[in-house]
Amino acid sequence: MKAIKGDWVRIKKIVLKVGERSNNLPDDTKKVPLEMWDKGFLLNEHASLGDWVKVETIIGRVIEGEFVQADPSYDVNYGASVNETLYIGKQLREMLGDEHE
Question: Which domains does the chain possess?
Answer without folding.
Answer: 2-74 (2.30.30)
